[in-house]
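Project outcomes to date are best conveyed with an example. Our students and postdoctoral researchers have been running inverse folding experiments weekly, and each run begins with a structure described purely in tokens. The record below, which covers 696 residues, was selected by the lab manager from last quarter's runs and is presented without edits.
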């Protein structure tokens, strides 16, 4: 990253520059937390071991971590490869067995010579009436007790990195990095009882009790605030930039919109009308609009966006709709072309798959102003795409795009572009601030009238056969169903494998009435499968979460979600929203695995009992924490190391206020505090913010 302040060099150096860290360990650390010194320093311990208890054997309790003074009594070598090497030890109150799997006798005899005194330290367990300690953490001579770390932080680990190794590395790292000037307002910091940044960093790695691990401890709260502040500064910089964007008053009188609205086979709901009014008022004003339309799946955002587009089209300008996937772009195109025909506007589709002559013709028509509304994927923001007079940019599933893409589209209209984002992922209020802190928000909470409720049930995996039988009966009546396969890891290819396996299994039951859809397929093949499902040639569509967003087949009335406990509430809600779009009764079956945690059980209960997306979003935040809430793979949410919006909501509100103030006062460009704040942005890698500052 260009321009990184010099005092951060030590933080961004590769871990292998630290003494005692070679390439192998560096590679393991990379998997664990990242391979820069900063990543290691930000890798927080998740537990504390307290070894201060030094009981007699007779006084230990099962599961207790203890340091015990013992005499070594007897070595019992392993009887075979699978049984452990044992060492019997004792004190004047009782005996205990030390257990070593794959223990090497010669080494153990040196460590634990028969007849000598040792301190052993580890977790004690009751094994068939005998106390035992497997693989003691420490074995010390009587004179070496001071070497024992009484209180030891325990880190999340990975293969090839032991806790001792990581502690040593962290200590090294702490001693090599320079102290940074604090970017926090020291008055406010002291009032909150928070330490300085470097003191916090050191204390992070030296917890003294479980309390210190709480996200609300002064140390962790301070670091969380730093992280949130960096994030909010970046957002405030973006907002500042977008506010400075040229706006223009779109001056149509709304007759085209009114005509289209009259031609709709339904009336707008109150929320839809209110959203449309807010959007139109923004467009009429000479400031650039930056508004987010938040509404549940099927709440009717698209039609609101379309009616808004007609405003700028009536005034002689163009509108564009950017969608995150090919499938969604297609679908919007089909819907809006039909609506557009009713009022005589020209609607076109541009995706990466439109090439050659067709593309050239389309671009020419766009530049000439012959296309009123352009719909497409990121293909519509490419450099070669020139608009005649773009005035409104609509961004569907806006959280799936970055700020850069939003700006790229907004820059396509020289005379000023209004931006309308849409998101069908209901987001809790606090997260709305974190994600879209720079936008005005309209919410559509009301559902269009006549929607039938979806019956949701939770079934255990053992009942898969019964599920298949009930599908067979439903298909005999002509029903159509989705079958969503589990999210396995943060990898699309394992998800694909799961989908393929389930597909093969269900093919045995339903033959060529089953289709398969996953993210690794070619767009062309995806569309072909979707088309066959949409026209009713397939009864069942087995899919990964690629169908989550936007897919619209009104005839489909059954949603089956396998491994439902692995999904977030918001995602389950999105998936369920694929059904219940027609006039038939719909149902959703959540197939769950065994051994669910209490939280997972509660989550399934919550989704079973509610169809209110905003309520579910708040519950999801409460139950899972913010990092998980949107599904990491597709969330626009920066992954947070210290901050957890489920507990740090108040810090967020404070940081947002401070960030806006700082940016308004241009504090980032002035004085020592400004330099410190810039350092903060670099440290937490909010480089969008930095780039915006540099370019503006
Ligand atoms: P979203 O974009 O919010 O997911 P859509 O705009 O795709 O929702 O609307 C979902 C469906 O509901 C569409 O078929 C649309 O025609 C229909 N619809 C939208 N608004 C209304 C309304 N006020 N009354 C009845 N149906 C509506
Ligand atoms: Mg939609």
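After processing, the design step wrote out the following sequence:
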């Amino acid at each position: 990253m260009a321009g990184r302040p010099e005092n951060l060099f030590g933080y961004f150096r590769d871990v292998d520059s630290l003494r005692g860290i070679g390439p192998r360990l560096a590679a393991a650390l990379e998997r664990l937390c990242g391979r820069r010194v900063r990543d290691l320093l930000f890798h927080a311990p998740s537990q504390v071991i307290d070894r201060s208890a030094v009981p007699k054997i007779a006084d230990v309790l099962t599961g207790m971590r203890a340091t015990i003074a013992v005499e070594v009594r007897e070595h019992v070598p392993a009887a075979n490869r699978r049984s452990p090497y044992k060492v019997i030890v004792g004190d004047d109150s009782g005996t205990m067995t030390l257990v070593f799997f794959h223990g090497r006798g010669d080494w153990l005899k040196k460590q634990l010579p028969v007849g000598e005194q040792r301190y052993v330290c580890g977790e004690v367990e009751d094994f068939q009436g005998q106390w035992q300690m497997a693989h003691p953490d420490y074995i010390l001579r009587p004179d070496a007790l001071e070497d024992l770390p009484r209180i030891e932080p325990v880190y999340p680990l990975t293969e090839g990195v032991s806790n001792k190794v990581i502690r040593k590395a962290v200590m090294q790292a702490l001693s090599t990095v320079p102290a940074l000037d604090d970017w926090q307002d020291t008055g406010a910091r002291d009032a909150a009882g928070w330490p300085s940044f470097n003191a916090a960093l050191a204390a992070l790695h030296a917890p003294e009790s479980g309390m210190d691990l709480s996200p609300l401890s002064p140390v962790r709260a301070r670091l969380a605030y730093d992280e949130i502040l960096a994030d909010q500064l970046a957002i405030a910089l973006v907002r500042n930039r977008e506010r400075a964007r040229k706006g223009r008053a779109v001056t149509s009188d709304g007759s085209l919109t009114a005509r289209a609205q009259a031609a709709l086979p339904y009336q707008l709901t109150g929320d839809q009308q209110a959203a449309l009014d807010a959007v139109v008022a923004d467009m009429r004003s000479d400031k650039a609009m930056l508004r987010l339309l938040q509404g549940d799946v099927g709440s009717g955002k698209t039609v609101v966006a379309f009616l808004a587009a007609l405003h700028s089209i009536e005034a002689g300008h163009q509108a564009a709709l950017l969608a995150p996937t090919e499938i969604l772009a297609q679908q919007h195109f089909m819907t809006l072309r039909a609506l557009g025909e009713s009022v005589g506007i020209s609607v076109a589709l541009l995706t990466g798959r439109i090439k050659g002559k067709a593309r050239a013709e389309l671009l020419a028509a766009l530049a000439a102003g012959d296309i009123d509304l352009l719909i497409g994927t990121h293909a519509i923001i490419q450099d070669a795409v020139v608009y005649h007079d773009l005035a409104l940019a609509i961004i569907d599933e806006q959280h799936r795009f970055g700020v850069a893409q939003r700006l790229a589209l907004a820059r396509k209209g020289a005379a000023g572009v209004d931006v309308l984002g849409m998101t069908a992922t209901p987001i809790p209020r606090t997260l709305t601030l974190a994600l879209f802190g720079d936008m005005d928000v309209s919410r559509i909470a009301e559902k269009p009238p006549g929607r039938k409720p979806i019956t949701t049930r939770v079934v255990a995996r053992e009942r898969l056969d019964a599920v298949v039988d009930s599908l067979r009966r439903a298909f005999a009546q002509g029903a159509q169903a989705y079958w969503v396969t589990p999210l396995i890891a943060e990898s699309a290819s394992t998800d694909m494998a799961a989908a393929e396996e389930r597909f093969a299994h269900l093919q045995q039951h339903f033959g060529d009435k089953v289709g398969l859809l996953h993210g690794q397929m070619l767009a062309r093949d995806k569309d072909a499968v979707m088309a066959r499902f949409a026209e009713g040639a397939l009864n069942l569509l087995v899919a990964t979460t690629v169908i989550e967003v936007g897919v619209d087949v009104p005839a489909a009335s059954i949603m089956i979600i396998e491994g439902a406990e692995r999904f977030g509430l918001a995602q389950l809600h999105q998936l369920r929203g694929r059904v219940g779009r027609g006039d038939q009764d719909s149902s959703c079956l959540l197939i769950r695995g065994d051994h669910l945690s209490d939280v997972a059980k509660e989550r399934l209960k919550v989704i079973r009992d509610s169809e209110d997306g905003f309520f579910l979003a708040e519950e999801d935040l409460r139950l899972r924490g913010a990092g998980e809430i949107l599904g990491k793979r597709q969330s626009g949410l920066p992954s947070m190391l210290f901050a957890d919006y489920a507990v740090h909501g108040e810090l967020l509100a404070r940081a947002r206020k401070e960030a806006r103030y700082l940016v308004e006062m241009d504090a980032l460009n002035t004085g020592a505090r400004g330099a410190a704040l810039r350092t903060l942005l670099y440290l937490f890698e909010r480089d969008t913010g930095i780039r915006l500052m540099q370019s503006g």
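The first helix runs from residue 9 to 12. Residues 454-610 form a domain with the Rossmann fold fold (CATH 3.40.50.300). The training component of this project remains on track.
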